[in-house]
Amino acid sequence: MVYEVYSWENDTNTSKPMNSKNLFKIFHQNIRGLKSKVDELSNSLWPDYPHILCLTEHHLKIFEIDNLPTDRYKLGSKFCRHEFKNGECIFLSRKILISPLSLLITTARKRILNFVL
Fold this sequence. Notes:
By secondary structure, the chain is of the alpha+beta class.
């Protein structure tokens, strides 16, 4: 499993040392089927949970995503393809207070698309 941390602070070219507790963390994973990997995913993120969790190719239906056991996250966005059982979903940490939520989701999607392309 690949785990990369992206920080908005890394774009500023500062020479001050970064503390991982102060970084805004986004985790992206091409999960290739989430249904049987929820516990494995949670265990791999512990103890330094990211603020945003982006999962692609989850192979779930809409009602399955809505009923995922996510204690630390709230569902921010979801997309499902009915023909191929692929799609994406974005979970936001429950600790984040965001207004408007749509701006963060749009920004996260752009970052993912730029990373994937």
